[in-house]
Design goal:
Radius of gyration: 17 Å
CATH class of the largest domain: Alpha Beta
Oligomer: single chain
Structural class: alpha+beta
Number of strands: 7
Distance between the termini: 43 Å
Strand content: 15-25%
Strand order of the largest sheet: 1-2-5-4-3
Order of helices and strands: HEHEHEHEEHEEHHHH
Largest sheet: 5 strands, mixed
């Protein structure tokens, strides 16, 4: 099994054993929904709520090695837990609490990566929202790949319904314009 899938499987098992609500995002989800690309880490959203992060962080730190001298403090201050899987793969755990993140976890589904292993990834639509909000150049390449691969199957209404409230927080009109341009690739031509 490839090392990213192996690391993600380890995280999946740990989160499931603890009854956590989570889903994989980032490059792993891109493997499922977009144009596969190299990724060096495992990204996931773990639903902790606001103010309830400590038990989640404290449950994962004995299982996975921290990447910083004070990983716990960093996680609680920045809402991102930085860990290593047993095989050394970096794991970025976003401590989720926003309604969008909660809904994305509810909409997540299993991704068959072979060898009887299934990884819980966000939906294609939620991945477009995550990537558009991040708005780095590599994210736009991922969004384009998702749109080209998923085409008219994408629920564009859902994408906009989830993204627009987030864009109000960011106040960057270029994101909406760029996504509108890319989503036109999914519209069937007549």
């Amino acid at each position: 099994m490839n090392p990213i899938f192996e690391a993600a499987h380890e995280v999946e098992q740990a989160c499931r054993a603890k009854g956590f609500s989570f889903c994989f995002i980032g490059g792993l989800a891109v493997q499922r929904w977009g144009e596969p690309r190299m990724t060096v880490d495992v990204d996931l959203t773990l639903i902790t709520g606001f103010g309830g992060e400590e038990p989640f962080v404290d449950a994962l730190l004995p299982v996975f090695r921290g990447r910083l001298p004070d990983t716990r403090t960093f996680a609680l201050d920045n809402r991102t837990l930085l860990l290593f899987a047993t095989n050394g793969t970096p794991i970025d755990v976003s401590l989720g609490a926003m309604p969008f993140e909660e809904r994305a976890v509810v909409r997540s589904s299993p991704f068959d990566v072979g060898d009887g292993v299934f990884l819980t990834t966000c939906s294609a639509e939620d991945l477009v929202v995550h990537k558009s909000f991040a708005a780095r150049e590599k994210d736009w390449l991922d969004v384009r790949g998702i749109i080209v691969r998923q085409g008219a199957q994408l629920d564009q209404h859902l994408i906009w319904e989830e993204l627009r409230p987030l864009l109000e927080l960011k106040d960057d009109p270029r994101i909406e314009a760029r996504l509108t341009e890319l989503l036109a690739l999914a519209t069937p031509r007549t």
